[in-house]
Amino acid sequence: MRQRLLALTATLAVGALTLTACGSRDEGNKGGSDGDTKVVIGLDAPLTGDLSALGLGMKNSVDLAVKTANKEKYVKGVTFELKALDDQAQPTSGQQNATTFVGQEDVIGVVGPLNSSVGEAMQKVFNDANTALVSPANTNPSLTQGLNWQKEKKRPFASYFRTATTDAIQGPFAAQYVYNEAKLTKAFIIDDKKTYGAGLAATFKGEYEKLGGKVVGTEHINPEAKDFAAVATKVKSSGAQVVFYGGEYPAGGPLSKQIKAAGADVAFVGGDALKSPEYIKLAGKSSEGDFATLVGSELEKLDSAKEFIANYQAEGYKDAYEAYGGYSYDAAWSIIEAVKAVTEKNDGKLPEDARKQVVEALQGVSFEGVSGTVSFDEFGDTTNKQLTVYEVKNGEHVAVKSGTFTD
Amino acid sequence: MNELPQQLVNGLLLGAMYGLVAIGYTMVYGIVQLINFAHGEIFMIGGFGALTVYLYVLPDGTGMAIALPLMIVGGVIAAVLVGVGAERLAYRPLRGAPRLAPLITAIGLSIALQQAVWAWYPDATKSLTFPELDLGPFEIGSVTLQGGDIFLIAAAPICMVILGWFVMKTRTGRGMQATAQDPDTAKLMGINTDRIIMVAFALGAAFAAVGAVAYGLKYGEVNFKMGFLLGLKAFTAAVLGGIGNIYGAMIGGLVLGVAEAISTAYIAEVPGMQQLGGQSWSDVWAFVLLILVLLLRPQGLLGERVADRA
To answer: Looking at the whole model, is its pTM more than 0.90?
Structure first.
């Protein structure tokens, strides 16, 4: 009896380990069905955990790009395949995934990750292997412009690109809107101390103070905690009219809710990582009138995105494409374009050093994507610097202002 | 505006929740000297049990007046089943084994339970919305109380009174005290210690489930990871109050909660401490307090000095 129970315990423990390690793992086999060369486009995003809604939207969108390219036979002689790995929004997992990707020979380029902090951990692995990493969502300026970007821009990694614009633009854009258009002059600034959140909050603060706004308080929170009552009380007694939060919706939603519940009459404002239906769900009814900025123009209104949205719905994905779906599709497509350029230059065959050539070709791609014209500048940043401010109205994010950022 | 009363209330509410969960750690430790690291997950399962009743058992649109008691019952049943099942299947076979074995088992079980909910509960990969009480907010002087807080204010003292009465007055409760003091002698006196241990796990799980319902009502969501950080804090509260002492668990929880709220609010205002204040540092200050208390009173606030068992 005792031994049977021991065995059961062991089974449970093994079960736990297997579960932790679960995830799709398609073993690669060279060559498609009709003699095509098979290349793999990787995807790295949080597919489980708090941020999985965003991550799954990214995965589905890349999947759609891969399917579309295969269906149209967009690159002759090449079949694309998706390999998705889960980084759980952890830099350590991201780096392991990066090693896995560059270790698998047929991986030509990778889309991802979602989090700037994860991107930071992955860049070097990809750069050392001369493999392209195109992020649809990393917005921290230092990833492309170096740690010293405020003084001297210097690109640290040649193989890293992004279709999302940076917080260097997003924060100030939000500040201009809050101060000039919404006429809110007293701000309380909160961040979650992550690369993304702290960076965003700092750029917002800089521009807001430059415009003449007053920062009445700052606070750093631990996004893993769910009790923000003490912070909420501080916000209330500070007399702020607006709270700017540099961080993501899993903590942002409850934070907004608790601040409003404490009786503070504020608009809760943040970056792209708050522009999610999950935010409104978590923040509840009191999220009415909150703002979020998002890189690019409103996807639903762009002519260029109509086809993407229709195809996405036709595929019947279980999860919504969320904030980064369009940029993920564009990121994947930029890799596909680069592969096309490389194979065409090499008489329709994939060259030996395809990875390296794809990185070089990415620098020159230019095409009409979901979010508009997709191309990269000398730092690997997108040249598409449109942003949109969304306001929560009747439980939905509604675009209230689109514009191109100017200093 | 003076925000001190509000911050104290914030801390006491958070602390009451820590306390409800800490009871489970302290009771199990008091009786079998096991730190049940899976207790945070039992708390989480209590929350999911309550949500299941609301989502899948009750008809849509049931008022919270009827739904809430049934949700508590559902949460308690789910948590107790898992808690007792863990004891029966994972811990009992290891009783008498070196102490590290059940400890590692507890950590493994914690991961297994978390992942099981993640994998098999519908949509549990995201945070799930928990129904809220349509009450409040209540303004009392300069203090604002939310609807969800009312439940916690009522539930925590009631739970403590019931527990105190159970342990002091009932036959099983006295059996628990005897088993805690000396399991072998208790057995010789005719106490079914296996049953007593099971009751300790069940009671701890039940209080954790009540805590989880309070968590759901207060924050409006439950998720598969919610037990990890809260479990860690509750364990800290149990140690702070004196592990093995049920009142100590509640006191430890309250002290910890207040320490977090106060340090969030005021440390940054101390000259030169700007960088060390705010919510992200409140955990650090809470643990500084723990270390200070343990230096001065190694047995915890209400703990008794007991000779380590041979």
So the answer is: no
